[in-house]
Protein backbone atom coordinates (compact mmCIF):
# COMPACT_ATOMS: atom_id res chain seq x y z
CA UNK A 1 0.00 0.00 0.00
CA UNK A 2 1.22 3.47 -0.88
CA UNK A 3 2.24 5.20 2.33
CA UNK A 4 2.02 8.71 0.93
CA UNK A 5 -1.05 10.56 2.18
CA UNK A 6 -3.25 12.82 0.14
CA UNK A 7 -2.88 16.59 0.36
CA UNK A 8 -6.06 16.77 2.42
CA UNK A 9 -5.37 13.94 4.84
CA UNK A 10 -6.79 14.03 8.36
CA UNK A 11 -4.19 12.49 10.63
CA UNK A 12 -5.50 11.81 14.12
CA UNK A 13 -2.48 12.55 16.28
CA UNK A 14 -2.17 13.94 19.80
CA UNK A 15 1.52 14.73 19.29
CA UNK A 16 0.97 18.43 18.55
CA UNK A 17 -1.42 19.39 21.33
CA UNK A 18 1.22 20.78 23.70
CA UNK A 19 1.48 24.08 21.77
CA UNK A 20 -0.74 27.03 22.65
CA UNK A 21 -3.49 27.40 20.10
CA UNK A 22 -5.14 30.59 19.01
CA UNK A 23 -8.56 28.95 19.02
CA UNK A 24 -9.92 25.72 20.49
CA UNK A 25 -13.17 24.49 18.98
CA UNK A 26 -15.48 22.09 20.80
CA UNK A 27 -17.68 20.08 18.46
CA UNK A 28 -17.09 18.42 15.09
CA UNK A 29 -20.44 18.92 13.39
CA UNK A 30 -20.84 21.19 10.39
CA UNK A 31 -20.65 24.35 12.51
CA UNK A 32 -17.45 23.37 14.31
CA UNK A 33 -15.84 22.04 11.14
CA UNK A 34 -16.73 25.27 9.31
CA UNK A 35 -15.22 27.38 12.10
CA UNK A 36 -12.04 25.27 11.98
CA UNK A 37 -11.78 25.71 8.22
CA UNK A 38 -12.39 29.46 8.43
CA UNK A 39 -10.01 30.00 11.36
CA UNK A 40 -7.13 27.88 10.04
CA UNK A 41 -7.44 29.27 6.53
CA UNK A 42 -7.17 32.79 7.95
CA UNK A 43 -3.93 31.91 9.72
CA UNK A 44 -5.04 30.95 13.22
CA UNK A 45 -3.48 28.03 15.07
CA UNK A 46 -6.59 25.92 15.39
CA UNK A 47 -7.59 22.69 17.10
CA UNK A 48 -11.00 21.00 16.96
CA UNK A 49 -12.18 18.41 19.49
CA UNK A 50 -15.10 16.05 18.87
CA UNK A 51 -16.29 13.54 21.46
CA UNK A 52 -17.53 11.10 18.79
CA UNK A 53 -16.69 11.15 15.12
CA UNK A 54 -16.82 14.13 12.78
CA UNK A 55 -20.45 14.68 11.80
CA UNK A 56 -21.65 11.66 13.79
CA UNK A 57 -24.51 13.56 15.43
CA UNK A 58 -27.00 15.96 13.94
CA UNK A 59 -24.88 16.78 10.88
CA UNK A 60 -25.16 13.22 9.53
CA UNK A 61 -28.90 12.91 10.25
CA UNK A 62 -30.26 15.52 7.87
CA UNK A 63 -32.91 15.51 5.14
CA UNK A 64 -29.93 15.55 2.74
CA UNK A 65 -30.59 19.00 1.31
CA UNK A 66 -28.76 22.29 1.18
CA UNK A 67 -31.83 24.46 1.07
CA UNK A 68 -33.36 27.80 1.84
CA UNK A 69 -36.08 26.39 4.06
CA UNK A 70 -39.26 27.35 2.25
CA UNK A 71 -41.40 26.41 5.22
CA UNK A 72 -39.64 28.99 7.37
CA UNK A 73 -41.56 31.61 5.40
CA UNK A 74 -44.65 30.46 7.30
CA UNK A 75 -42.95 31.84 10.43
CA UNK A 76 -41.96 35.02 8.53
CA UNK A 77 -38.30 34.08 9.02
CA UNK A 78 -37.32 35.87 5.82
CA UNK A 79 -33.78 36.73 6.95
CA UNK A 80 -32.94 33.06 7.62
CA UNK A 81 -34.39 32.03 4.25
CA UNK A 82 -32.41 34.67 2.38
CA UNK A 83 -29.16 33.74 4.14
CA UNK A 84 -29.82 30.06 3.49
CA UNK A 85 -30.50 30.60 -0.21
CA UNK A 86 -27.26 32.54 -0.56
CA UNK A 87 -25.34 29.77 1.23
CA UNK A 88 -27.08 27.09 -0.85
CA UNK A 89 -25.35 28.53 -3.91
CA UNK A 90 -21.98 28.96 -2.20
CA UNK A 91 -21.87 25.38 -0.91
CA UNK A 92 -22.92 23.95 -4.27
CA UNK A 93 -20.25 25.91 -6.16
CA UNK A 94 -17.64 24.75 -3.65
CA UNK A 95 -18.30 21.03 -4.15
CA UNK A 96 -20.16 20.34 -7.43
CA UNK A 97 -19.27 16.62 -7.32
CA UNK A 98 -21.21 16.13 -4.08
CA UNK A 99 -24.46 17.94 -4.88
CA UNK A 100 -27.32 17.74 -7.38
CA UNK A 101 -30.12 20.14 -8.20
CA UNK A 102 -33.43 18.45 -7.44
CA UNK A 103 -36.94 19.44 -8.39
CA UNK A 104 -39.32 19.76 -5.47
CA UNK A 105 -43.05 19.48 -5.94
CA UNK A 106 -45.42 21.06 -3.47
CA UNK A 107 -48.90 19.64 -4.14
CA UNK A 108 -51.96 21.78 -3.56
CA UNK A 109 -55.31 20.31 -2.53
CA UNK A 110 -58.57 22.19 -2.02
CA UNK A 111 -58.13 21.68 1.71
CA UNK A 112 -54.49 22.81 1.80
CA UNK A 113 -53.39 25.00 4.67
CA UNK A 114 -51.96 27.43 3.77
CA UNK A 115 -54.38 27.65 0.82
CA UNK A 116 -53.13 27.26 -2.74
CA UNK A 117 -52.88 30.98 -3.44
CA UNK A 118 -50.78 31.56 -0.34
CA UNK A 119 -48.53 28.59 -1.16
CA UNK A 120 -47.99 30.15 -4.58
CA UNK A 121 -47.11 33.47 -2.99
CA UNK A 122 -44.58 31.70 -0.76
CA UNK A 123 -42.98 29.93 -3.71
CA UNK A 124 -42.77 33.23 -5.58
CA UNK A 125 -41.14 34.93 -2.57
CA UNK A 126 -38.73 32.00 -2.25
CA UNK A 127 -37.72 32.47 -5.87
CA UNK A 128 -37.37 36.23 -5.41
CA UNK A 129 -35.12 35.79 -2.38
CA UNK A 130 -32.91 33.51 -4.50
CA UNK A 131 -32.22 36.28 -7.01
CA UNK A 132 -28.51 35.35 -7.19
CA UNK A 133 -29.08 31.58 -7.36
CA UNK A 134 -27.28 31.18 -10.71
CA UNK A 135 -24.38 33.57 -10.14
CA UNK A 136 -21.22 31.79 -11.39
CA UNK A 137 -23.19 28.52 -11.65
CA UNK A 138 -22.32 26.04 -14.42
CA UNK A 139 -25.18 24.54 -16.41
CA UNK A 140 -25.43 21.50 -14.13
CA UNK A 141 -26.06 23.69 -11.08
CA UNK A 142 -28.37 26.29 -12.59
CA UNK A 143 -31.79 26.57 -10.95
CA UNK A 144 -34.85 27.48 -13.07
CA UNK A 145 -37.74 29.61 -11.91
CA UNK A 146 -40.60 27.73 -10.24
CA UNK A 147 -43.71 26.91 -12.20
CA UNK A 148 -47.23 25.65 -11.69
CA UNK A 149 -48.00 22.05 -12.67
CA UNK A 150 -51.50 21.16 -13.75
CA UNK A 151 -53.25 18.28 -12.03
CA UNK A 152 -52.50 15.93 -14.92
CA UNK A 153 -48.82 16.90 -15.13
CA UNK A 154 -48.45 16.56 -11.39
CA UNK A 155 -49.94 13.06 -11.39
CA UNK A 156 -47.72 12.09 -14.31
CA UNK A 157 -44.71 13.08 -12.20
CA UNK A 158 -46.03 11.75 -8.85
CA UNK A 159 -48.60 9.04 -9.60
CA UNK A 160 -48.90 7.90 -5.99
CA UNK A 161 -50.55 11.13 -4.78
CA UNK A 162 -54.13 11.20 -3.49
CA UNK A 163 -56.20 12.66 -6.35
CA UNK A 164 -59.18 13.68 -4.21
CA UNK A 165 -59.35 17.48 -4.22
CA UNK A 166 -55.93 17.73 -5.87
CA UNK A 167 -55.62 20.98 -7.82
CA UNK A 168 -52.05 20.77 -9.06
CA UNK A 169 -48.72 21.70 -7.60
CA UNK A 170 -45.82 24.10 -7.54
CA UNK A 171 -42.44 22.91 -8.81
CA UNK A 172 -39.26 24.55 -7.56
CA UNK A 173 -35.66 23.45 -7.03
CA UNK A 174 -33.34 22.93 -4.08
CA UNK A 175 -29.90 21.31 -3.81
CA UNK A 176 -29.51 17.67 -2.85
CA UNK A 177 -26.64 17.12 -0.42
CA UNK A 178 -26.09 13.62 -1.76
CA UNK A 179 -23.81 12.37 1.01
CA UNK A 180 -23.72 14.90 3.91
CA UNK A 181 -21.03 12.86 5.63
CA UNK A 182 -18.71 13.21 2.64
CA UNK A 183 -19.36 16.92 2.18
CA UNK A 184 -18.62 17.57 5.84
CA UNK A 185 -15.39 15.59 5.47
CA UNK A 186 -14.47 17.66 2.42
CA UNK A 187 -14.64 20.80 4.53
CA UNK A 188 -12.82 19.08 7.39
CA UNK A 189 -10.04 18.22 4.96
CA UNK A 190 -9.89 21.86 3.89
CA UNK A 191 -9.34 22.76 7.53
CA UNK A 192 -6.64 20.11 7.92
CA UNK A 193 -4.87 21.26 4.75
CA UNK A 194 -4.84 24.80 6.19
CA UNK A 195 -3.11 23.52 9.33
CA UNK A 196 -5.94 22.75 11.75
CA UNK A 197 -5.52 19.86 14.18
CA UNK A 198 -8.70 17.76 14.08
CA UNK A 199 -9.25 15.17 16.82
CA UNK A 200 -12.28 12.91 16.85
CA UNK A 201 -13.09 10.62 19.80
CA UNK A 202 -11.72 13.29 22.14
CA UNK A 203 -14.12 14.35 24.87
CA UNK A 204 -13.90 17.76 26.53
CA UNK A 205 -14.44 17.18 30.24
CA UNK A 206 -14.01 20.71 31.53
CA UNK A 207 -12.25 24.03 31.19
CA UNK A 208 -8.77 25.08 32.29
CA UNK A 209 -9.30 28.42 34.00
CA UNK A 210 -8.21 30.94 36.60
CA UNK A 211 -10.64 33.00 38.61
CA UNK A 212 -10.80 36.13 40.70
CA UNK A 213 -13.76 38.39 40.19
CA UNK A 214 -14.02 36.92 36.67
CA UNK A 215 -13.46 33.46 35.23
CA UNK A 216 -10.63 33.42 32.71
CA UNK A 217 -10.62 30.45 30.33
CA UNK A 218 -7.13 29.31 29.36
CA UNK A 219 -7.91 25.99 27.70
CA UNK A 220 -9.79 22.72 28.08
CA UNK A 221 -9.33 19.37 29.79
CA UNK A 222 -9.92 16.41 27.48
CA UNK A 223 -9.99 12.63 27.53
CA UNK A 224 -8.87 10.56 24.57
CA UNK A 225 -11.85 8.21 24.38
CA UNK A 226 -9.83 5.54 22.55
CA UNK A 227 -6.99 5.27 25.08
CA UNK A 228 -8.57 6.74 28.21
CA UNK A 229 -5.67 9.17 28.69
CA UNK A 230 -6.30 12.71 29.93
CA UNK A 231 -4.74 15.88 28.52
CA UNK A 232 -4.89 19.64 28.96
CA UNK A 233 -4.93 21.84 25.86
CA UNK A 234 -4.25 25.55 26.13
CA UNK A 235 -5.50 28.30 23.87
CA UNK A 236 -6.26 32.00 23.69
CA UNK A 237 -9.97 31.54 23.10
CA UNK A 238 -12.45 28.65 23.12
CA UNK A 239 -15.43 28.34 20.78
CA UNK A 240 -18.17 26.04 22.04
CA UNK A 241 -19.80 24.64 18.89
CA UNK A 242 -21.32 21.55 20.49
CA UNK A 243 -24.66 22.10 18.77
CA UNK A 244 -27.56 20.73 20.84
CA UNK A 245 -25.24 20.23 23.79
CA UNK A 246 -23.67 23.68 24.17
CA UNK A 247 -25.44 24.15 27.49
CA UNK A 248 -24.09 20.81 28.76
CA UNK A 249 -20.55 21.96 27.94
CA UNK A 250 -21.16 25.27 29.69
CA UNK A 251 -22.53 23.52 32.78
CA UNK A 252 -18.98 22.44 33.65
CA UNK A 253 -18.16 26.11 34.33
CA UNK A 254 -20.21 26.03 37.50
CA UNK A 255 -21.79 29.42 36.85
CA UNK A 256 -24.63 30.80 34.78
CA UNK A 257 -24.03 32.01 31.23
CA UNK A 258 -27.53 32.99 30.15
CA UNK A 259 -27.64 30.33 27.44
CA UNK A 260 -30.64 28.08 27.00
CA UNK A 261 -31.15 25.41 24.34
CA UNK A 262 -34.31 23.68 23.22
CA UNK A 263 -33.74 20.33 21.59
CA UNK A 264 -35.82 18.83 18.83
CA UNK A 265 -35.68 15.25 17.52
CA UNK A 266 -35.57 14.80 13.77
CA UNK A 267 -36.15 11.28 12.46
CA UNK A 268 -35.98 10.05 8.85
CA UNK A 269 -36.75 6.66 7.36
CA UNK A 270 -35.43 4.90 4.25
CA UNK A 271 -38.02 2.85 2.37
CA UNK A 272 -38.80 1.17 -0.91
CA UNK A 273 -39.15 3.78 -3.68
CA UNK A 274 -42.62 5.30 -3.86
CA UNK A 275 -43.93 5.12 -7.40
CA UNK A 276 -41.92 1.97 -8.09
CA UNK A 277 -38.27 1.17 -8.82
CA UNK A 278 -36.48 2.87 -11.67
CA UNK A 279 -38.68 5.96 -11.75
CA UNK A 280 -36.81 9.27 -12.05
CA UNK A 281 -38.66 10.88 -9.21
CA UNK A 282 -39.01 14.37 -7.86
CA UNK A 283 -38.83 15.29 -4.21
CA UNK A 284 -42.32 15.84 -2.83
CA UNK A 285 -43.32 18.17 -0.02
CA UNK A 286 -46.14 15.97 1.27
CA UNK A 287 -48.44 17.81 3.66
CA UNK A 288 -51.24 15.86 5.34
CA UNK A 289 -54.63 17.27 6.35
CA UNK A 290 -53.41 17.06 9.95
CA UNK A 291 -50.99 19.87 9.08
CA UNK A 292 -47.94 17.64 9.44
CA UNK A 293 -45.59 17.29 6.51
CA UNK A 294 -42.68 15.18 5.35
CA UNK A 295 -40.26 15.41 2.47
CA UNK A 296 -40.28 12.33 0.24
CA UNK A 297 -36.94 12.34 -1.56
CA UNK A 298 -35.55 10.04 -4.24
CA UNK A 299 -32.20 8.85 -2.92
CA UNK A 300 -29.95 5.95 -3.95
CA UNK A 301 -32.87 4.21 -5.70
CA UNK A 302 -35.07 4.42 -2.61
CA UNK A 303 -37.31 6.94 -0.84
CA UNK A 304 -35.83 8.93 2.04
CA UNK A 305 -38.68 10.36 4.11
CA UNK A 306 -38.86 12.80 7.02
CA UNK A 307 -38.27 14.59 9.23
CA UNK A 308 -40.18 14.52 12.44
CA UNK A 309 -39.80 17.65 14.54
CA UNK A 310 -40.71 16.85 18.12
CA UNK A 311 -39.49 18.41 21.38
CA UNK A 312 -37.17 16.28 23.47
CA UNK A 313 -38.28 16.04 27.07
CA UNK A 314 -36.90 14.05 29.96
CA UNK A 315 -33.70 12.06 29.49
CA UNK A 316 -31.69 13.64 26.69
CA UNK A 317 -28.60 11.49 27.02
CA UNK A 318 -29.58 8.77 24.55
CA UNK A 319 -31.91 10.01 21.84
CA UNK A 320 -33.17 7.09 19.74
CA UNK A 321 -35.80 6.40 17.11
CA UNK A 322 -38.98 5.24 18.82
CA UNK A 323 -41.77 3.22 17.19
CA UNK A 324 -44.01 6.28 17.44
CA UNK A 325 -41.53 8.31 15.37
CA UNK A 326 -41.69 5.80 12.53
CA UNK A 327 -45.49 5.56 12.83
CA UNK A 328 -45.80 9.34 12.63
CA UNK A 329 -43.85 9.47 9.36
CA UNK A 330 -45.67 6.50 7.87
CA UNK A 331 -49.10 7.88 8.79
CA UNK A 332 -48.24 11.30 7.38
CA UNK A 333 -47.01 10.09 4.01
CA UNK A 334 -49.68 7.38 3.71
CA UNK A 335 -52.44 9.97 4.18
CA UNK A 336 -51.18 11.78 1.07
CA UNK A 337 -51.23 8.65 -1.09
CA UNK A 338 -53.95 7.51 -3.46
CA UNK A 339 -56.31 4.82 -2.08
CA UNK A 340 -55.11 2.46 -4.81
CA UNK A 341 -51.49 2.74 -3.71
CA UNK A 342 -49.89 0.12 -1.47
CA UNK A 343 -49.34 1.95 1.80
CA UNK A 344 -45.98 1.94 3.54
CA UNK A 345 -45.56 -0.21 6.64
CA UNK A 346 -42.69 -0.85 9.01
CA UNK A 347 -41.77 -3.81 6.80
CA UNK A 348 -40.88 -1.29 4.08
CA UNK A 349 -38.52 0.64 6.37
CA UNK A 350 -34.94 -0.42 5.72
CA UNK A 351 -33.24 1.90 8.18
CA UNK A 352 -33.73 5.07 10.21
CA UNK A 353 -31.68 8.10 11.20
CA UNK A 354 -32.10 10.43 14.14
CA UNK A 355 -30.58 13.82 14.89
CA UNK A 356 -31.02 16.42 17.60
CA UNK A 357 -31.52 19.96 16.40
CA UNK A 358 -30.20 22.86 18.49
CA UNK A 359 -32.84 25.57 18.71
CA UNK A 360 -32.35 28.97 20.29
CA UNK A 361 -34.43 29.39 23.42
CA UNK A 362 -36.13 32.67 22.63
CA UNK A 363 -38.88 33.09 25.21
CA UNK A 364 -38.75 32.57 28.94
CA UNK A 365 -41.13 33.15 31.82
CA UNK A 366 -40.34 35.20 34.90
CA UNK A 367 -38.37 32.31 36.40
CA UNK A 368 -36.23 31.92 33.32
CA UNK A 369 -37.89 28.71 32.17
CA UNK A 370 -38.83 28.07 28.59
CA UNK A 371 -42.37 28.74 27.46
CA UNK A 372 -43.39 25.78 25.31
CA UNK A 373 -44.19 27.08 21.85
CA UNK A 374 -43.16 23.86 20.07
CA UNK A 375 -40.08 23.19 18.01
CA UNK A 376 -41.66 23.14 14.56
CA UNK A 377 -42.11 26.91 14.53
CA UNK A 378 -38.81 27.69 16.29
CA UNK A 379 -36.34 29.81 14.36
CA UNK A 380 -33.37 28.17 12.64
CA UNK A 381 -31.32 31.33 13.07
CA UNK A 382 -27.96 31.16 14.82
CA UNK A 383 -26.66 33.29 17.65
CA UNK A 384 -23.16 33.98 18.93
CA UNK A 385 -22.87 34.18 22.71
CA UNK A 386 -19.91 36.11 24.08
CA UNK A 387 -19.66 34.92 27.68
CA UNK A 388 -17.58 37.91 28.73
CA UNK A 389 -21.01 39.47 29.26
CA UNK A 390 -21.50 37.00 32.12
CA UNK A 391 -18.06 37.25 33.69
CA UNK A 392 -16.36 34.50 31.67
CA UNK A 393 -13.46 35.63 29.49
CA UNK A 394 -12.10 33.94 26.34
CA UNK A 395 -15.20 31.83 25.71
CA UNK A 396 -17.86 31.91 22.98
CA UNK A 397 -20.77 29.62 22.21
CA UNK A 398 -22.69 29.20 18.97
CA UNK A 399 -26.39 28.52 19.35
CA UNK A 400 -28.94 27.40 16.77
CA UNK A 401 -28.15 27.42 13.08
CA UNK A 402 -28.51 24.80 10.37
CA UNK A 403 -26.35 22.74 7.98
CA UNK A 404 -26.77 25.12 5.06
CA UNK A 405 -25.60 28.20 6.97
CA UNK A 406 -22.59 26.65 8.71
CA UNK A 407 -20.09 28.54 6.54
CA UNK A 408 -21.75 31.91 7.14
CA UNK A 409 -21.89 31.26 10.87
CA UNK A 410 -18.18 30.40 10.88
CA UNK A 411 -17.24 33.53 8.95
CA UNK A 412 -19.13 35.69 11.44
CA UNK A 413 -17.60 33.82 14.39
CA UNK A 414 -14.01 34.25 13.22
CA UNK A 415 -14.65 37.91 12.43
CA UNK A 416 -15.70 38.33 16.06
CA UNK A 417 -12.58 36.57 17.32
CA UNK A 418 -10.36 38.92 15.34
CA UNK A 419 -12.32 41.88 16.73
CA UNK A 420 -12.05 40.70 20.33
CA UNK A 421 -9.72 38.13 21.92
CA UNK A 422 -7.52 37.74 18.85
CA UNK A 423 -7.32 41.40 17.97
CA UNK A 424 -3.83 42.05 16.68
CA UNK A 425 -3.11 38.42 15.83
CA UNK A 426 -1.70 38.14 12.32
CA UNK A 427 -4.09 36.81 9.72
CA UNK A 428 -3.96 35.92 6.07
CA UNK A 429 -6.58 36.57 3.39
CA UNK A 430 -9.19 33.90 2.79
CA UNK A 431 -12.60 34.19 1.18
CA UNK A 432 -14.62 31.09 1.97
CA UNK A 433 -17.40 32.31 -0.33
CA UNK A 434 -15.23 31.48 -3.32
CA UNK A 435 -13.13 28.60 -1.97
CA UNK A 436 -13.58 25.00 -3.01
CA UNK A 437 -13.97 22.18 -0.53
CA UNK A 438 -11.14 19.69 -0.14
CA UNK A 439 -10.94 17.38 -3.15
CA UNK A 440 -13.18 19.46 -5.41
CA UNK A 441 -12.19 19.15 -9.07
CA UNK A 442 -12.79 22.85 -9.77
CA UNK A 443 -14.77 25.61 -8.07
CA UNK A 444 -18.02 26.46 -9.86
CA UNK A 445 -17.45 24.01 -12.72
CA UNK A 446 -19.50 21.07 -13.87
CA UNK A 447 -18.04 17.95 -12.22
CA UNK A 448 -19.24 15.42 -14.81
CA UNK A 449 -16.33 15.76 -17.30
CA UNK A 450 -13.84 15.36 -14.46
CA UNK A 451 -15.71 12.34 -13.10
CA UNK A 452 -15.78 10.72 -16.54
CA UNK A 453 -12.06 11.28 -17.08
CA UNK A 454 -11.23 9.93 -13.61
CA UNK A 455 -13.34 6.83 -14.15
CA UNK A 456 -11.65 6.14 -17.48
CA UNK A 457 -8.21 6.54 -15.90
CA UNK A 458 -9.10 4.12 -13.11
CA UNK A 459 -10.55 1.70 -15.64
CA UNK A 460 -7.10 1.40 -17.21
CA UNK A 461 -5.97 -0.09 -13.87
CA UNK A 462 -8.75 -2.62 -13.72
CA UNK A 463 -11.41 -0.65 -11.84
CA UNK A 464 -14.81 -0.96 -13.59
CA UNK A 465 -16.23 2.29 -14.92
CA UNK A 466 -19.23 2.34 -12.59
CA UNK A 467 -16.95 1.83 -9.58
CA UNK A 468 -14.63 4.57 -10.84
CA UNK A 469 -17.53 7.00 -11.20
CA UNK A 470 -18.68 6.13 -7.69
CA UNK A 471 -15.21 6.86 -6.28
CA UNK A 472 -14.79 10.10 -8.24
CA UNK A 473 -18.17 11.40 -7.04
CA UNK A 474 -17.32 10.65 -3.42
CA UNK A 475 -13.66 11.71 -3.33
CA UNK A 476 -13.17 14.21 -6.14
CA UNK A 477 -9.48 14.70 -6.92
CA UNK A 478 -8.54 12.21 -4.22
CA UNK A 479 -9.55 9.41 -6.60
CA UNK A 480 -5.83 9.38 -7.43
CA UNK A 481 -5.07 8.15 -3.92
CA UNK A 482 -7.70 5.39 -4.14
CA UNK A 483 -6.34 4.40 -7.54
CA UNK A 484 -2.81 4.18 -6.12
CA UNK A 485 -4.00 1.89 -3.32
CA UNK A 486 -5.60 -0.42 -5.89
CA UNK A 487 -2.48 -0.43 -8.06
CA UNK A 488 -0.35 -1.56 -5.12
CA UNK A 489 -2.99 -4.01 -3.90
CA UNK A 490 -5.24 -5.17 -6.76
CA UNK A 491 -7.43 -7.19 -4.38
CA UNK A 492 -8.55 -3.92 -2.78
CA UNK A 493 -10.64 -3.23 -5.90
CA UNK A 494 -13.16 -5.84 -4.75
CA UNK A 495 -16.65 -4.62 -3.89
CA UNK A 496 -17.62 -4.96 -0.26
CA UNK A 497 -21.19 -5.89 -1.18
CA UNK A 498 -23.15 -6.48 -4.40
CA UNK A 499 -25.65 -3.91 -3.13
CA UNK A 500 -23.15 -1.04 -3.08
CA UNK A 501 -20.24 0.20 -5.20
CA UNK A 502 -17.92 0.69 -2.22
CA UNK A 503 -14.63 -1.20 -2.51
CA UNK A 504 -11.99 -2.41 -0.04
CA UNK A 505 -9.56 0.41 -0.93
CA UNK A 506 -12.01 2.89 0.60
CA UNK A 507 -11.66 1.15 3.96
CA UNK A 508 -7.89 1.56 3.78
CA UNK A 509 -8.21 5.21 2.78
CA UNK A 510 -10.72 5.87 5.59
CA UNK A 511 -8.15 4.83 8.19
CA UNK A 512 -4.95 6.21 6.64
CA UNK A 513 -6.23 9.53 5.29
CA UNK A 514 -9.59 10.30 6.89
CA UNK A 515 -9.14 9.77 10.61
CA UNK A 516 -11.56 6.84 10.92
CA UNK A 517 -10.97 4.89 14.12
CA UNK A 518 -14.06 2.72 14.61
CA UNK A 519 -16.15 0.44 12.41
CA UNK A 520 -19.00 2.95 12.55
CA UNK A 521 -16.65 5.74 11.45
CA UNK A 522 -15.81 3.67 8.38
CA UNK A 523 -19.12 2.21 7.24
CA UNK A 524 -21.39 5.09 8.27
CA UNK A 525 -19.38 8.23 7.55
CA UNK A 526 -16.50 7.39 5.19
CA UNK A 527 -18.20 4.84 2.95
CA UNK A 528 -21.76 4.80 1.60
CA UNK A 529 -22.65 1.25 2.55
CA UNK A 530 -23.74 2.03 6.12
CA UNK A 531 -26.21 4.70 4.97
CA UNK A 532 -28.28 2.63 2.52
CA UNK A 533 -29.57 -0.18 4.73
CA UNK A 534 -28.68 -2.70 7.39
CA UNK A 535 -25.08 -3.89 7.75
CA UNK A 536 -24.46 -7.59 8.31
CA UNK A 537 -22.05 -9.09 10.79
CA UNK A 538 -20.16 -10.61 7.85
CA UNK A 539 -19.61 -7.19 6.31
CA UNK A 540 -18.39 -5.77 9.62
CA UNK A 541 -15.99 -8.71 9.92
CA UNK A 542 -14.64 -8.01 6.46
CA UNK A 543 -14.15 -4.31 7.21
CA UNK A 544 -12.45 -5.17 10.50
CA UNK A 545 -10.14 -7.62 8.70
CA UNK A 546 -9.00 -4.81 6.37
CA UNK A 547 -8.88 -1.95 8.90
CA UNK A 548 -7.61 -3.91 11.91
CA UNK A 549 -3.92 -4.12 10.97
CA UNK A 550 -3.90 -0.39 10.13
CA UNK A 551 -5.36 0.36 13.57
CA UNK A 552 -3.00 -2.05 15.38
CA UNK A 553 -5.89 -4.31 16.37
CA UNK A 554 -5.09 -7.90 17.27
CA UNK A 555 -7.61 -10.64 16.53
CA UNK A 556 -9.35 -10.34 19.88
CA UNK A 557 -9.69 -6.57 19.56
CA UNK A 558 -11.10 -6.88 16.05
CA UNK A 559 -13.60 -9.51 17.13
CA UNK A 560 -14.72 -7.36 20.05
CA UNK A 561 -15.12 -4.33 17.78
CA UNK A 562 -17.33 -6.36 15.44
CA UNK A 563 -19.42 -7.73 18.28
CA UNK A 564 -20.00 -4.32 19.85
CA UNK A 565 -20.84 -2.62 16.56
CA UNK A 566 -23.21 -5.35 15.41
CA UNK A 567 -24.93 -5.38 18.81
CA UNK A 568 -25.27 -1.59 18.72
CA UNK A 569 -26.92 -1.66 15.32
CA UNK A 570 -29.18 -4.54 16.32
CA UNK A 571 -30.41 -2.74 19.43
CA UNK A 572 -31.21 0.39 17.40
CA UNK A 573 -33.16 -1.53 14.74
CA UNK A 574 -34.95 -3.73 17.26
CA UNK A 575 -36.08 -0.72 19.29
CA UNK A 576 -37.92 1.11 16.54
CA UNK A 577 -39.35 -2.13 15.15
CA UNK A 578 -40.92 -3.03 18.50
CA UNK A 579 -44.30 -1.26 18.74
CA UNK A 580 -45.53 -0.14 22.14
CA UNK A 581 -47.77 -2.86 23.54
CA UNK A 582 -46.43 -5.40 21.05
CA UNK A 583 -48.86 -4.55 18.25
CA UNK A 584 -47.73 -4.24 14.66
CA UNK A 585 -48.78 -2.13 11.75
Task: Report on this structure.
- With 585 residues, this protein is α/β, with parallel strands linked by helices.
- The chain folds into 3 domains: 21-59 and 181-258 and 378-434, FAD/NAD(P)-binding domain (3-Layer(bba) Sandwich), CATH 3.50.50.60; 97-176 and 263-359, 2-Layer Sandwich (D-Amino Acid Oxidase, Chain A, domain 2), CATH 3.30.9.10; 448-576, Orthogonal Bundle (Helicase, Ruva Protein, domain 3).
- It is 30% helix and 23% strand.
- The chain has 15 helices and 21 strands.
- It has helices spanning 30-41, 78-94, 116-129, 151-157, 180-193, 246-250, 323-334, 406-419, 448-459, 465-475, 479-488, 504-513, 519-525, 537-547, 555-576, and strands at residues 21-26, 46-49, 65-66, 99-109, 147-150, 166-177, 197-199, 202-211, 215-224, 230-240, 261-271, 283-287, 293-299, 302-306, 310-311, 349-360, 382-386, 392-393, 395-400, 495-497, 500-503.
- Strands 3, 4, 5, 6, 11, 12, 13, 14, 15 and 16 form a 10-stranded mixed beta sheet that branches. Strands 1, 2, 7, 8, 9, 10, 17, 18 and 19 form a 9-stranded mixed beta sheet that branches. It has a two-stranded antiparallel sheet with strand order 20-21.
- A hairpin with a 3-residue loop joins β8 and β9 (215-224).
- α1 (30-41) runs parallel beside α5 and α11 crosses α12 (504-513).
- It is globular and about 70 Å long.
- It starts with 20 loop residues before the first strand and ends in a 9-residue tail after the last helix.
- The relative contact order is 0.15.
- Residues 363-378 have low confidence and may be disordered.
Amino acid sequence: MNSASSAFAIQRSLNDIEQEFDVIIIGGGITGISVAREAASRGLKTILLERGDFGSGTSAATTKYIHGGIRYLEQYDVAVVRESLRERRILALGAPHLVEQTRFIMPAWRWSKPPTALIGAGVLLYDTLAFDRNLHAPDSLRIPHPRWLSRSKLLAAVPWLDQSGLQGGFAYHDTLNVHPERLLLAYAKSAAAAGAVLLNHTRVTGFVSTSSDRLRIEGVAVTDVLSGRDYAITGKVVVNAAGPWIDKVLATLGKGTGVGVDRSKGVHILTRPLGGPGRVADAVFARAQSGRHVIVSPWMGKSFIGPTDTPIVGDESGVVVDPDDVTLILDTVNSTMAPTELKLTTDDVEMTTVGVRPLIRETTDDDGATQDEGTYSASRAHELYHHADHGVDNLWSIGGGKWTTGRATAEEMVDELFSNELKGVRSRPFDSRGAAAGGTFAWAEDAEPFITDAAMAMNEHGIPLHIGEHIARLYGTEWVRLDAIVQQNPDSAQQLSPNCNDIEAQVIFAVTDEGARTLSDIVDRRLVIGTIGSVSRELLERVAFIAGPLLAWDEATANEAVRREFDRRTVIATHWRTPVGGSSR
